[in-house]
Write a structure and sequence with these properties.
The structure is a single chain. By secondary structure, this protein is mostly helical. The protein has one domain (60-310): MetI-like fold, CATH 1.10.3720. It is 69% helix and 1% strand. It has 16 helices and two strands. The chain has helices spanning 9-27, 40-60, 77-83, 86-117, 124-131, 133-136, 139-149, 156-159, 161-164, 173-201, 205-213, 218-229, 231-246, 250-255, 267-277, 281-306; strands at 63-64, 72-73. It has a two-stranded antiparallel sheet. Helix 4 (86-117) runs parallel beside helix 10, helix 13 runs antiparallel to helix 16 and helix 15 (267-277) runs antiparallel to helix 16. The two termini are 45 Å apart. It is a multi-pass membrane protein. Residues 92-302 form the ABC transmembrane type-1 domain. It is found in: Cell membrane.
Length: 318
């Protein structure tokens, strides 16, 4: 006597769905998925404005070009120069430092404000709209605004020397880095708050109702329900912060111009100096590729450490 093993669960599920699909086709209610043609415009746009420029930058990194004459092949000279460039190594360290500080400041603020904005408090909509105003301004406008407000002679530090000392916050490295982190958080925390607000509203209300029946208070619900449910959103937000922090340029250009000295010369600003001030487009292209590589590696590490790549649920955090 022979026995047959049961079909795998996936096969059984597929067999069960086939009659339903056939019935849907006969009734004309079948849902058709978009074909590949729908992705062509976005694919062409990405290839034209992302892949192609990246390839051209990679080619330029192996050339010696001043922007006027024809590029001359230089082999690995630009890359060897970067390995022995103290300013480049320092700029990478400063880029990572400012990025880490930005993530450390913006993440808790964004989570708390996002969870609050997702609630039903009185005047919540009005206060949220006011709080989101910095997000509507360009980075250049924000930098000019804070440059004027932090002026050591006429700005806020001049009126509160008991708190700011001589008032020249941008004249020392610690003060300049603190200003860059603060200004970045002031402008971009609303964006991440908006992400957390939407994710919080997507959390099933039944979870909070069940927790309340078990006697869990607001704080306990936040740590045992809200935060775990926001895990995917936290990873996404942090990756955006990392990429944004490593590519920050206009804020440094307007607020500190890499100073004092080279104390805030991050990699993006150093790339600008090499390419557009020193007319070394080959060296600037090499720096740009290093930035892309560092941002990619850090993002992959965040995804792998957080386990984001293994999450398959369509529900947040489940």
């Amino acid at each position: 006597m022979t026995t047959t093993s049961p079909a795998p669960a996936a096969a059984q599920d597929g067999q069960a769905r086939r009659p339903a699909r056939r019935a849907a086709r006969r009734s004309g209610t079948a849902v058709t998925r978009p074909g590949f043609a729908w992705a062509v415009p976005a694919t062409l746009f990405f290839a034209l404005f992302a892949i192609l420029p990246l390839v051209l930058v990679a080619v330029l990194s192996f050339t010696d070009w001043d922007g006027l004459d024809a590029p001359a092949f230089a082999g690995l000279d630009n890359w060897r120069a970067l390995l022995h460039d103290h300013t480049m190594i320092q700029s990478l360290w400063l880029s990572v430092l400012i990025t880490v500080l930005g993530v450390a400041v913006q993440t808790p603020l964004s989570i708390l404000l996002g969870v609050w904005a997702a609630g039903k408090q009185r005047n919540r909509a009005v206060l949220s709209a006011v709080f989101f105003v910095p997000l509507l301004l360009s980075a250049t406008a924000v930098s000019v605004l804070w440059r004027a407000m932090l002026d050591p002679n006429f700005g806020v530090p001049a009126q509160a020397r008991w708190l700011f000392g001589n008032g020249n916050l941008l004249g020392m490295q610690s003060g300049a880095i603190g200003v860059l982190v603060f200004v970045g958080a002031w402008q971009y925390t609303p964006f991440h708050t908006l992400i957390y607000q939407g994710a919080t509203r997507a959390i099933p209300e039944v979870l909070y109702q069940a927790a309340a029946l078990d006697g869990a208070g607001t704080v306990r619900q936040f740590f045992h329900i809200t935060l775990p449910q926001l895990r995917n959103t936290m990873v996404t937000s942090m990756i955006l912060m990392v990429v944004g922090g490593l590519t920050t340029f206009d804020t440094v250009l307007i607020l500190t111009q890499g100073g004092p000295g080279t104390d805030t010369t991050i990699s993006a600003y150093y790339m600008y100096q090499q390419a557009f001030k020193n007319f070394d487009y080959g060296g600037g292209s090499a720096i740009a590729l290093v930035l892309v590589l560092v941002a990619t590696v850090i993002s992959l590490v965040v995804v792998r450490v957080s386990g984001y790549d293994k999450m398959r649920s369509s529900s947040e955090g489940l």
